[in-house]
# Entry
Amino acid sequence: MKSRIIRIQEDLMADEKTAAFRNHRRVIENRQYLVNVMASPGAGKTSLILALMKEMGELYDFSVLEGDVDSTVDADKIIEAGFRAVQIQTGGFCHLIPFMIEKGLDILDQEKAFSSSELPEMIFIENIGNLICPVEHDLGEMQKLVILSVPEGDDKPLKYPAIFKAADVIVLNKADYLQMEEFRIDEFLKQINILNPGVKFFSVSCRNGAGVKELAGYLIEESLKTLK
Amino acid sequence: MNMHELPVIEKILNIVEKQAKMNSLNKILSLTLETGALSDLEPEWLNYYFRKICRNTILQDTKLKIFRQKAFFQCRDCDHNWSYSLKTAENCPLCRGRNIELKADSHYTLKEIEGI
# Structure
């Protein structure tokens, strides 16, 4: 009996993409602006999220969907600083997936029911510390914000092309280290330009606050375009 | 354990079972998958979990053909393209321009199945 070839041409990630799109539509309807923050462990995700929320203060209600393999260390930091956080523990999974975000958004919505605030919301997703896995898993966010810190080195973009290519915003953190380290900023920007021409780039220091205002301004501007 | 391959295998099973019914296939001889150059799918892991999950199903002895697209550079000035390597990320080999772009993505597509 002769075998037959059947052409399929189907995207195997379609279900996950549908779930991400569902999240995206839902947050737009609820006047929420979702930012997916990705970086290696220790690059400054929590610090940058805190610095941005403090900078933007009165304009938004802020929440953080905090993704970690284990513990509540980061969510505790956010709550201590006076902001809302939902801790998502993946128990070993190396990236967040749309379903986890959906559950996190459900919890935030329940809590919001008790608030009388009329302000729009900005929700930061702090993804698992990882430069590889998170990028293939769209969560429904409006911005993919990727952080690299100066001590990690200027050669990382071409070594981790997928995440730098997919980023909407690239933030170079720990800019206060630039004098001390051998970080060649022109080499870094050259690699970024090959992978992702036209990406928004910001150089910041969470420690001394440099550049945080500019990055915050950009996020505010972008969120106003979407939430209008 | 790498968790990335499991949802993909589940999806493949769903698609193939439906197609097998529609086309009256009793046995799937092979599956052709294509991944983008930036995809983190690993064929060895995919094979490993595939064999385990698809035991006693229509995909039990199916051969997996996995093709990964190759990343390449393209010159934005003269449109020339050349294969990717860290060494060739400087200039366009044709016009020596520095206005170059990496062309690569991370899709996973089930292209075709072969069955009887």
Remarks:
- Residues 29 and 62 of chain B are 5 Å apart (CA to CA).
- The interface with chain A takes residues 3-4, 7-8, 11-12, 15, 19, 23, 25, 29, 33, 38-40, 71, 73, 76, 86, 89, 98, 100-102, 104, 106-116 of chain B (CB under 8 Å).
